[in-house]
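Exercise 4. Each item below gives a protein and its sequence. For each, produce the structure-token representation.

Item: GNAT family N-acetyltransferase (Glycomyces albidus).
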Amino acid sequence: MKIIEFNAADADLIDQALAILKAAHDVDTPENPTYTERFFRTLFTHLMPGRERHWFAAVGDDGRAAAFARANFFTEENRELAMYELKVHPDHRAGDADALLRDHVERFCAEHGRTSIVTAVPVYWEGGPARDGSTARALEARGYTLALTTVNRRSPVDPLGADEEERRYTEALAKAGDAYEVRQWIGPVPDDLVDTMCRMDTMIMAEIPLGEIEAQPEQVTPEKLRAREAVNAVEGRTWVHSVAVERATGEVRAWTEIALDEGDTVNGMQGITIVDPAHRGHRLGLLLKLANLRQLRAHSPSTQWIWTDNADVNAPMIAINELMGYETVDANAEYQLKR
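Answer:
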């Protein structure tokens, strides 16, 4: 078994990595959505701004890959941090592919100045399906510590029924009052909202729970925002947005979004839901999530489920999700290795 680095020019290894991804998903988390083929292949050809990516494969003597890994580096803020994903084909889990590949990735990250290395594994959560905890135990044996747990939940796109949804939407709208206007769009941010959306996007890392992971807010500029949107277009990923705009200032004070991937007609992925700290207590989060579900249903009638993940300590967002009928599936344990 040898470890090699590969890239967009290695079509055969990309095909093998996609096959490994699918096989691992079918065994490890069959209830959950995974990358579409278009999205996965775009990871080799396009980068989000402020990112650097490296791919590695554990290859046997027959030239077939038993496992692959993707290491992501930040190139602006958080240059000491690396995040990686590693998948081993179920047929090769009894061998040494996992250990050899992790050794290589950890060494590579350290050689490139990354002193904090983070990776995530699926784990069981109360009420959900069984999950194999062997990878989590192996990470702990390698010196990793649990830094953050995020719980995966899913909800139907119409969880409350028309009458109950209307009642809760009307209540949330009344609580918000006349100070805010709900605006919605699908795809790129409207030009008149770009600057205020950059401010909201920059706020994210400072407001969401990160557990023991140390990360600085990423400064989002109009150029960076538009570059992200260009990558999304190639990925086949469309974002469905709803925001609350403060009428007095024209600033966005709350925002929620759902991603739809070409190639998956059933699942939507809840992105960020964030309310400016100075504007909390007006039910803006609930208002926007309900409004965005309405927009989503009109835009994509085939979508059946919305998936979300929240830190297990994020009580306010968990309360909103439970109010909206989200049910727990499993969790991701994010492990950190400090150098």
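Check: The first helix runs from residue 11 to 28.
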